[in-house]
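Revision sheet: structure tokens.
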Amino acid sequence: MILHGYWRSGTSYRTRIALNLKGVAYEQSALDLRTGAQKSERYLTLNPQGLVPALETGDGQVLTQSPAILEWLEEAFPEPPLLPSDAGGRAQVRAMAALIGCDIHPLNNMRVLKAVRALTSGQMGADQAGVDAWAGQWIIDGFTALEALVARHGEGWCFGAAPTLADCYLIPQLYSARRFNVDPAAFPRLLEIEARAEAHPAFIAAAPENQPDAD
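Predicted:
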């Protein structure tokens, strides 16, 4: 398999975590988003949307959009499971993942932040402080809700006592939060999960600083 991604991309990061948790071997093809490599003609033949990640599965398929890739991994490589065995539990984990993937991350990705920087009035000014304020608002709102959900369902991880899809989403978002000067100290349960991830080989191998294109 070949994973096309970027070392600091949250969507690429969550996909690396899931691949590692499943024990699936893959190569990496780095795309520097800062230079627009994701918009090259060659890459657009793989992913017409021009976004990362994209996963070449080795059987002629190219999968895009990290939620679809992670669900495919769960179906194609069911062990170890990243979703609970019961329908209610699966729905709870998917809701936690969507809280991050739909309600936090899209509002602080590169495309949106470029648009925020282009604005010239109000608190969303073009300076970095305005960008941090914009991103921080949605991160804090989302983490507040997620902290409560982990209190209900977590037993060391977001849901239960083993990593799930929700943890694949959480750890990259914590990494991103600090880039926007968001102090996660108000979310002790999320930090406890992060501490476990920092000692877990799958998460360590997926960390941005450990990628071949990191700088």
